[in-house]
């Protein structure tokens, strides 16, 4: 075993270097832990119960269909406070003269998920699914899927009569 003899100055310098290494290692560990916690917090909304409060109201717009060159006017009515699994509003397709009951399925991938749980008026089938994404300009982007076609469009909110 080889011993090395260090001067007082060299010992002090070596201790300072060791303390700096420990400080940097601790700082890196704290930053990693903080980033893990931050990711967990940002995902908490997606994992928790998200109600329909942010999209409550009456929305209208034109839907564009994948199976034909058609545009159809629709109206969505969404009450506040709906939780996943609850019946939550209705949708009217003016040209088809069909109205569906909507069940809110939850918030996933940045969008409110729903399905048509019942046909309230007209001969249109229920069961198809869709999503509503609240855009930064205050509109909703709707994507709706059936086994035969899909439809997309932008919905605008009707002003609240109480304002």
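^ structure tokens above, recovered residues below v
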């Amino acid at each position: 075993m080889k011993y090395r003899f260090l001067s007082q100055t060299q010992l002090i310098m070596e201790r300072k270097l060791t303390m700096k290494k420990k400080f940097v290692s601790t700082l890196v560990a704290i930053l990693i832990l903080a980033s893990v916690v931050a990711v967990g917090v940002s995902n908490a909304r997606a994992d928790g119960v998200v109600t329909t409060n942010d999209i409550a109201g009456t929305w209208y717009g034109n839907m564009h269909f994948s199976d034909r060159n058609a545009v159809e006017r629709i109206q969505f009515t969404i009450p506040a406070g709906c939780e996943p699994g609850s019946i939550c509003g209705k949708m009217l397709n003016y040209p088809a003269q069909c109205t569906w009951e909507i069940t809110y399925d939850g918030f996933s991938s940045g969008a409110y998920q729903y399905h048509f749980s019942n046909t309230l008026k007209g001969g249109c089938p229920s069961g198809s699914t869709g999503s509503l994404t609240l855009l930064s300009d205050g509109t909703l982007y709707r994507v709706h899927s059936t086994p035969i076609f899909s439809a997309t469009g932008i919905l605008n909110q009707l002003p609240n009569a109480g304002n």
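The radius of gyration is 28 Å.
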